[in-house]
Amino acid sequence: MTPTLKVAVLALEHASAFDLAVPHEVFDTVRLPDGRRPYEVRLCAPGSGASTRRPAGHDRGGWGAWEDSDTVIVPGRPVDAEPASPDVVRALRRAARMGKRIAALSTGTFLLAEGGLLDGIPVAAHWSLADELVRRHPSVQVRLDALYVDSGSIVTSAGASAGLDLCLHLVRRDFGAEVATRAARRLLLPPRRPGGQAPFAVPDHPALPRGSRFADLLGWIDDNLAADLSLDAMARRCGLNVRTLSRRFPQEVGATPQQWVTRARVRKARELLVSSDLPVESVARAAGFTSLSTFRARFHQVVGLTPNGYRASFHDR
User: Fold this and answer.
1) Who is most buried in 125, 134, 162, 239, counting CB within 10 A?
2) Judging by beta carbons within 10 Å of its beta carbon (0-12, 13-18, 19+), is residue 163 exposed, middle or buried?
3) Statement: the pTM of the whole predicted model exceeds 0.85
4) pLDDT tens digits, residue range 100-119?
């Protein structure tokens, strides 16, 4: 008989109530083909300072209950919350040394990074917090294209709802796709969400250095996406030759000129697909794409969905 897998959810101070509930919602739903529940989920409170919020109907375990668990779940906390207690950080480091699987939901990734558990490994982070995570912990490798990232013994999710995707992934990893798919159906969730978090992320253009020579050019590009935006045309507009533009532009902007143009055009297309009923062909022309096939390819490359798929998911009406 397959042994029961023990999951410890750390009931940390200021922990997200949603994140505390997610493991119970997913793992308590799982059934093996013989009808048996293969998971036992416990909330572990680190002393009297732990948050009192917990899913109804679930008892709190002692702090030491995580030591005999197979998986340790770290819930998200506000990124501006006071640092976790040294006892929590020491426990996570010990759990890693013991070879336990550690899963961070949403901003729980910040706590793992604080403990030095993410150095040099790829992790997921919500697109709006990725820069802050890297600023605090430069050795962390953030993947913005993923809802969750499985790095073996460390698994991280990009946001609150992505914690559901992460937990379903762990079920799939433990018991296979069929068991995970049945659990997803009970939860009214897709077994896998397409496109990662790219369809949801609409990051602003990064701020330019003060006094950048390219500020006027980039503003003009945003207003003239259907114009000639070749390297030659952009270089003439800046009064530079193509070679100088190609060298200096990435240094100041953080992307090549053509990467910037593609992102600007895709951003415009996203806006039109959501806010208008224009045919896809008209959206492509308005965003400056001269070929419908090129538009579809670039859009899918950046967003992770087709234009029609994106409109079906996000159209205002």
Assistant:
1) 125
2) buried
3) no
4) 999 999 999 999 999 999 99
